[in-house]
Amino acid sequence: MPLLEIDNLSVTFQTAGGLFTAVDRISLHIEPSEIVSIVGESGSGKSVAVLALMGLLPWTATVTADVLRFDGQDLTTITKPELRKIIGCQMAMIFQEPMTSLNPCFTVGFQLTETLKIHLGMNRAEQKRRAIELLELVGIPEPEKRLSAFPHQLSGGMNQRVMIAIAISCNPRLLIADEPTTALDVTIQAQILDLLLKLQKEKGMSLVLITHDMGVVAETAERVFVQYAGQQVEQQPVKGLFARPHHPYTQALLNSLPERSNSRILPSIAGIVPGQFDKPQGCLFSPRCHYATDLCREKPPTAGPVEFGNALCHYPLADGVPTNYPQEVRA
Amino acid sequence: MFVYFLRKLIVILPTFFGVTLVAFVFIRTLPGDPVMLMAGERGMSPERHAELMAEMGFDKPIIVQYGLYLKQLAGGDFGTSIITKQPVLKEFATLFPATIELSICAMIIAIFFGLPAGMIAATRRGSVFDHTVMTSALTGYSMPIFWWGLLLIIFFSGILGWTPVSGRVSLLYYFETVTGFMLIDSFLSGQEGAFISAMSHLILPSIVLGTIPLAVIARQTRSAMLEVLSEDYVRTARAKGLGPMRVIGVHALRNAMIPVITVIGLQVGVLFAGAILTETIFSWPGIGKWMVDSIFRRDYPAVQGGLLLIAAIVMIVNLVVDLLYGLINPQIRHTD
Ligand SMILES: Nc1ncnc2c1ncn2[C@@H]1O[C@H](COP(=O)(O)OP(=O)(O)OP(=O)(O)O)[C@@H](O)[C@H]1O
Ligand SMILES: [Mg+2]
After folding, report:
1. CA angle B36–B39–B43, rounded 5-degree value
2. Closest approach atom of ligand 1 to CA A44
3. Among all residues of chain B, which has the CA nearest to that of A53?
4. Which of A81, B42, B312, B324 is the most exposed place for a label (fewest CB within 10 A)?
5. A227: which strand partners?
6. SS3 for B281-302, per residue?
7. What is the DSSP letter of A267?
8. Bridge partners of A176?
9. According to DSSP H, which parts of A212-277 are helical?
10. What is the model's pLDDT at position A138?
């Protein structure tokens, strides 16, 4: 049984300019102890999707889903107090900005022991012992001293370690890391990533790693979900994805990797992710896709078969070439 | 933290000096002759007038008068009232508890209603509650104190007859002054009904005096809360599975309190200013009313001393608030 099942999750925001669909029918199935990655450029709705799962979106958001199940529990019908027993305990999350994600007014110890008290009902002595153990686990030197430190006294990398310690404090079954290293120095990035993978292995938890770094994906994930403008455009095991991308967007993302580029100039994807007011009529990627035809510009594609990584494309790629591509255009 | 404290303390000294100058000049710019007012003698001869002026030291050049005044202050002497012949400090000390009692009650009302109102308004932004709170706050803030006081007196004392119109306690009761705080003294006296009577005298003036601080605190709490609620750490708190009471009441409130504490501190000055009007309307025998009376009597030493003491108290309270601010904001505490 999958640990997490999401089918057709959509999130719509009420904004001053009308309704905006930030996440459009995405599906995720995650097995216990599996590492999956969600990739996509900024603004493609990765954060919104997982925040919706955790119930952390503001009231302006409307979340709908055919299936939203965690560990057999239906999250669509669950009450808020019941959901609060799951999040922070069974299902935990760390965020992109370690410096602002911790409360500046409370000590590391206070913020770390909070979940231990609330979810596990530990007494003070147990909380302290466990907090020190957790800080040791995430590689913070002098853990006992750090308990009384405030977040502004620690570096970004240290704060992210504290965030990780908080997230794993109740031995979650699923850890969601939303761009955990984006805000950090390159050397620290690798350390934090290694730490996450080490903890994942030790604890046997499932890990959802959100990133826009294809290099990170290659090193860590077992399966990859590619997201673009709120839609899931492809999903594949990591090997297949890197060897045979089926969606032109995935191909473009891979081509922008330095080690894959054979020219000296790094090919980046021209254009930006469409936002609320510039959504194209047909395929959302069509304005930036160099395979786009009139059909692409007029009619939204439907998800392809599993062999094609469920690619959301009229002409999914096979071995780097679009299939069923009209003859006239190819010239 | 210690350096932080010292720095705040150093700022206070020149401010205090400035206040002495302002107080000294202010009362002398008012038209009217202290000697004439004090003596109450009709057709006073110029010789007698000059004699009295010299007696009180008003014949010397103003700059010399100021110098003498400062010297006297440095010795801890705030002067002697020309009317009552009592030391200003002593008069002040006798009347001060009444003002403090009124101010504390006003502040309790302001914080007790203002904080939760602002918090709830922020968490239900745009709701009917939010709009009601914000409109009432604006109304309360712009309501002139004397008008608002009269309105309450007419309604609660006049029409409903629930509360007395003036004074601190009914004349039916008499008890020794122990603390100067009527609520405590009446309670200690053990006389039946005395405490209730003191309470009923206190309630209307406290509401009147507390209205502006209440409005300011509610608005400040709301805006600080709105800002804090969109912070990442509030999201983190919710991601931990904490309930709304803990997220808002602990994680968000602690941060929102930082600007609110500052505003509460600033309200102390507003309270003393408001006390002058409120005490006059309700014949409340505190320093506000005493100051007004002293000004009308051109009691130079009393006005000067009173202004100075009030200023000193406001500054001390603000210093305490600054310290409190440092205590709840660890980023300040650790900078020095
Ligand atoms: N509260 C909100 N109200 C309205 N729109 C929102 C809200 N939160 C996010 N959005 C919009 O949803 C879209 C997706 O945002 P999201 O933060 O999920 O992107 P992302 O893929 O996580 O990007 P990044 O890599 O920058 O984190 C964006 O266009 C964003 O403007
Ligand atoms: Mg994001």
Report:
1. 65
2. 21
3. B239
4. B42
5. A232
6. HCCCCCHHHHHHHHHHCCCHHH
7. P
8. A93, A208
9. 214-220, 238-243, 248-255
10. 93
User: What are the angstrom distances between the C-alpha of B121 and each of A18, B127, B226?
Assistant: 25, 8, 9
The reported pLDDT for the residue numbered A329 is: 56
Helix, strand, or coil (residue A176): strand
pTM value? 0.83
Mean confidence (pLDDT) of chain A: 90
Q: Using one digit for the tens of pLDDT, what is the confidence trace for B244-264?
A: 999 999 999 999 998 898 888
Distance CA A145, CA B96 (A): 48
d(CA A52, CA A37): 17
Q: How much is the average pLDDT of A267-279?
A: 79
Joined together, the tokens standing for residue B142 give: 């712009």
H or E segment to which residue B260 belongs: helix B253-281
Residue pair B285/B168 in contact by the 8 Å Cβ criterion: yes
Q: Do residues A238 and A215 touch, judged by C-beta distance below 8 A?
A: no
The beta-carbon neighbor of A54 closest among B239, B329, B334 is B239
Please answer whether residues B169 and B194 qualify as being in contact, where contact means their C-beta atoms are separated by less than 8 angstroms: yes
Which DSSP symbol is given to B156? I
Better-predicted residue by pLDDT, B238 or B15? B238
| Dist. CA B303–CA A119, nearest whole Å | 62
Can you list the positions of beta strands (E) in A31-70?
35-39, 61-64, 67-70
CATH architecture of B88-164+210-296: Orthogonal Bundle (1.10)
pLDDT of residue A331: 45
Measure the CA–CA gap between B211 and B148, rounded to whole angstroms.
9
**What's the average model confidence in pLDDT over A156-184?**
93
The confidence score (pLDDT) of residue A310 equals 92
pLDDT tens digits, residue range B183-205? 888 888 878 888 888 888 899 99
How far apart CA A6 and CA B12 sit, in angstroms, is 63
Q: Tell me if chain B has a CB within 8 Å of the CB of A121.
A: no
Give the residue from A95, A98, A94 showing the smallest Cα distance to A188: A98
B299 residue type, one letter:
D
Best residue among A48, A226, A233 to mutate for probing ligand 1's pocket (most ligand atoms within 8 Å of CB) is A48
Cα–Cα distance measured from residue B223 to residue B248, given in angstroms and rounded to the nearest whole number: 14
Model ipTM value: 0.90
Specify the DSSP element, H or E, that contains A233.
strand A231-237
